[in-house]
């Protein structure tokens, strides 16, 4: 019997990338989907790092290799997961500002699956189209986030887009502030 809890990660991933709104409602109601959402976020981080041409190996000496692998762990695991958690908090705050509430885990799962389009960032490695791919994927991620917000909060698409765009602007400003702080 095909129940939402039995659906595979790959099936859910594809449906999320295709902006199938029902998958966001499905994963937000499935307690077991948190690990799947985490894997989607990590896959997006790996594809982004590979798309940027980040090397997998060092120059040959152990120190160089260690630095490369620490950087890989940072860019493929830490940054995407922390970004996912911050994005969830920002969207949650935006939704609350508009009078909506939902369980934190359900929003976390839905926004994790909204990261499915990030796998296309792997295409940034192709010469001459990296910037275009980045812009398209960024808009695709925003659309997926809006679909997730719409499903989790059971609100209109227009309201979901407003929350997602407002959340994106706030998220971008937080990131810019952190970057400015980190670089002194």
Structure description:
The protein is built from seven helices and no strands. The relative contact order is 0.14. Helix content is 73%, strand content 0%. The chain has 184 residues and is mainly α. It has helices at residues 9-17, 21-29, 33-51, 62-97, 104-113, 130-153, 157-183.
Distance between the termini: 57 Å
Number of strands: 0
Fraction of residues in β-strands: under 5%
The topology string of helices and strands comes to: HHHHHHH
Whole-angstrom Rg: 17 Å
CA-based shape: globular
Uncertain ranges? none
Helix share, percent: over 70%
- Give a short account of the largest sheet: none
Class by alpha and beta content: mainly alpha
Q: Which whole number gives the mean pLDDT?
A: 86
Contiguous helical run count: 7
Task: Supply database-style keywords.
73% helix, globular, 184 residues, 0% strand, single chain, mainly alpha
Brief overview:
This protein is mostly helical and 184 residues long.
Give the arrangement of secondary structure elements.
Elements: H1 9-17, H2 21-29, H3 33-51, H4 62-97, H5 104-113, H6 130-153, H7 157-183
Helix pairs in contact: 2-5, 2-6, 3-4, 3-5, 4-5, 4-7, 5-6, 6-7
């Amino acid at each position: 019997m095909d129940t939402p809890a039995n659906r595979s990660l790959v099936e859910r991933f594809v449906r999320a990338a295709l902006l199938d709104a029902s998958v966001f409602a499905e994963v937000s109601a499935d307690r077991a989907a948190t690990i799947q959402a985490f894997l989607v976020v990590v896959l997006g981080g790996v594809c982004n790092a590979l798309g940027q041409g980040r090397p997998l190996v060092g120059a040959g000496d152990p120190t160089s290799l260690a630095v490369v692998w620490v950087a890989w762990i940072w860019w493929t695991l830490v940054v995407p997961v922390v970004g996912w958690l911050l994005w969830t908090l920002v969207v949650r705050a935006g939704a609350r500002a508009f009078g909506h509430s939902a369980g934190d885990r359900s929003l976390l799962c839905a926004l994790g699956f909204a990261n499915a389009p990030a796998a296309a960032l792997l295409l940034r490695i192709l010469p001459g189209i990296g910037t275009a791919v980045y812009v398209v994927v960024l808009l695709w991620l925003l659309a997926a986030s809006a679909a997730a917000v719409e499903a989790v909060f059971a609100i209109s698409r227009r309201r979901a887009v407003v929350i997602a765009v407002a959340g994106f602007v706030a998220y971008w400003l937080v990131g810019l502030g952190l970057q400015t702080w980190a670089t002194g």
